[in-house]
Design a protein that fits this description.
The chain is of the alpha/beta class. The protein is built from five helices and seven strands. The strands form two sheets. It has a five-stranded parallel β-sheet with strand order 2-1-3-5-7. The two termini are about 15 Å apart. Keywords: 4Fe-4S, Iron, Iron-sulfur, Metal-binding.
Length: about 140
């Protein structure tokens, strides 16, 4: 019971780049800077998906990143909450029909929330993260 309460108040985030240009990755890091400071909500970036509550996915899924994406999704503890950040992770963006693009993340794994934009603005990522936290607290 205490573990469940603690997890819901401070969701830990795992960031996965599946082939992006790093624009959205930089904006995710900006979330942790003083302007947006998501750590005040208890959010913390972790290095292992096994410790994460929410997974942030950036970029289109490439042929090389497909298997790691599926493995990392399996490693996430339940409830599995995934947020796609940026146009590329939602629709493959300008990389659509590229020779090494398998597709957007939602074709391979269930996605909880989407944050559009190229690159996604930290304020929008923050809003998407709030939705993901709500879903995580409900345990869906």
């Amino acid at each position: 019971m205490i573990f469940k309460i603690g997890r819901s108040k401070s969701p830990w985030l795992f960031h996965l780049n599946t082939g992006s240009c790093n624009g959205c990755d930089i904006e995710i890091i900006a979330l942790f800077a003083s302007r947006y400071d998501v750590e005040r909500l208890g959010c913390k970036l972790v290095g292992s998906p096994k410790h994460a509550d929410i997974c942030l996915v950036t970029g289109p899924v490439t042929a090389r990143s497909k298997e790691p994406l599926l493995r990392i999704y399996d490693m996430l503890p339940n409830p599995k909450v995934v947020v796609c950040v940026g146009t590329c992770s939602i629709s493959s963006g300008v990389f659509t029909d590229g020779y090494s693009i398998v597709g957007p993340a939602h074709k391979l794994i269930p996605v909880t929330a989407y944050v559009g934009g190229c690159s996604a603005h930290p304020k929008n990522i923050f809003l998407g993260l709030q939705k993901a936290i709500e879903v995580f607290k409900e345990g869906r």
